[in-house]
Design brief:
85 residues, 2 helices, mainly alpha
Amino acid sequence: MLLFVAVVGTACGPEENVRVQLTPDQRDAFQAIAAAQIDSLRPVLDSLCQASFADRVAIATDSIVQRRLEEETRLRTRLQQMTGE
């Protein structure tokens, strides 16, 4: 067992940076595969986006309204301090 660990330990040296150079045909094949995968995911992603759109708009609207209300409260407080009311 110790011999196995020693052999595996010496075989696992530092990682080498390997630069892979694709041929134009390989690059085209890779792009075709990637495009096919993206096209197959697009309907799923679009349906997820459509399903969650209303919720995301409501959350964003609530956030904007909340910030405006907080800003209004700060301005009213500052106005009261300036006028001495």
